[in-house]
């Protein structure tokens, strides 16, 4: 390890390793195949770059982020480390040139895109090299459960047998739920003892979910109150980006925009304005942010609910990279669910739809939970023994908790009486005693109109809360249906109580919001 620390100082100018970095590097240098799960900004790169320097021979880095490869390689070279990359941006001759210089020795790190490994000729070329380490970046791409599955990642393990002595393997990712970690370990044959997960909680971030706000008014007011603070507003669609941008522009705010429908030149221009503090606020789709290293982002606001927790945490996590207090705010409306379902339905790969729907449910639950928001997220990623953050909107909520067990029993028994095969909206209408034609068939039920003192929308929100509490579960599908969980049965049998924060009226209605 002493040697590793010396290399750290010599090439990167840092004095000490972060805790998990040290463990991971030790493990790799002991020739153990390793999985390293660490949040963005946690310092994953050094976990393979230091071993690459310490070991003899070449380290191959497999990365899907072609646009970042050149930056990485330039950075390494400027630190005096011989590195190179091969991807589709190079011509045939350039690839041959890089391979020639790699064969001649000296190169310590070779970055390649995963698709290369499907080329037999290229693999033949690799065979002749002295490879001691294979680093697989963005390793979640190997798993169907990952949020960014790439079929070419499935071929990676085939190259392990190219050499008489298998190189050590290190897989790295920022977003692996327990399911994904298991998949990675199984496909790359990594022993579960060699999985290192570092703290996902970001202590300087304060999380908030706001439901039923007039989003436009909220955003304007927030920015007015936080003049000179840099922030990102993420919106679900390009159209939405354009309208938020115009609204802020007309209010005299220095604003930039970024989405996939803009010309590359314009996108780069806007991105630079934001990075150089010429624009205070960036309004963007999820196309913005990868590889952006702006440390003083004080807030990240989501104008609509994103499609899953992975994307949310990745995007929200762009706030406060400098360690200073920053806010992550999600503006939720129940219509966001339909938007996301629609986007999932449009997906190219039909096989992914059930997985995406399940992931969607987790973020819907996040929007309705009354538990600590930071804990909810880090537990989703597999962190255990998490303590409440003490400052998110839920931890700071001082409204009293009231006993809603009886109303919960009414909802649960209605779900049972309806045969556990209907969705949230219909169930809410039955409980509200709606005259809607679709629910006439249920008028004979003893639970019809049993929650008349609430309207169907309030009941639907209550059902969302019961789902977030795992008392009701959702069977995903084009028309998701709800059913009672084991815990929910405990409520029906009066074995457990249900406590909920006293509900306060939302201050504005959605129709005030001109964007919706
Ligand atoms: P990740 O790949 O996990 O997103 P990076 O490897 O890009 O993170 O590291 C994030 C930042 O932290 C970089 O600027 C890197 O130089 C810095 N960093 C990493 N390890 C250390 C360390 N031990 N000491 C100081 N800075 C570090």
Any descriptors?
about 525 residues; alpha/beta; 7-stranded parallel sheet; 6-stranded parallel sheet; 18 helices; disordered C terminus; helicase; EC 5.6.2.4; DNA_helicase_ATP-dep_RecQ; hydrolase activity
Commentary on this structure:
This protein has about 525 residues and is of the alpha/beta class. It contains 18 helices and 17 strands. It has helices at about 1-10, 20-30, 45-55, 65-80, 90-105, 120-125, 180-190, 215-225, 240-250, 265-275, 310-315, 335-345, 355-370, 375-380, 405-415, 425-430, 455-470, 485-490; strands spanning about 35, 60, 85, 110, 130-135, 170-175, 195, 205-210, 230-235, 255-260, 280-285, 295-300, 325-330, 400-405, 470-475, 480-485, 500. The strands form 4 sheets. Strands 3-4-2-5-6-1-7 form a 7-stranded parallel sheet, sandwiched between helices. A hairpin with a 5-residue loop joins strand 15 (about 470-475) and strand 16. Mean pLDDT is about 90; it is low at about 505-515. The structure holds adenosine-5'-diphosphate (ADP). Adenosine-5'-diphosphate (ADP) binds next to helix 3.
Q: Please give the radius of gyration in angstroms.
A: 26 Å
Q: Report the sheet-strand fraction.
A: 15-25%
Low-pLDDT residue spans: 506-516
The bound ligands are: adenosine-5'-diphosphate
Give the fraction of residues assigned to helices: 25-40%
What topology, given as strand order, has the largest sheet? 3-4-2-5-6-1-7
Termini separation (Å)?
Answer: 57 Å
The main β sheet shows up as: 7 strands, parallel
Q: pLDDT average, as an integer? A: 91
| Count of DSSP H/I helices | 18
Extended strand count: 17
Rough outline: globular
Instruction: Classify the secondary structure makeup into a structural class.
Output: alpha/beta
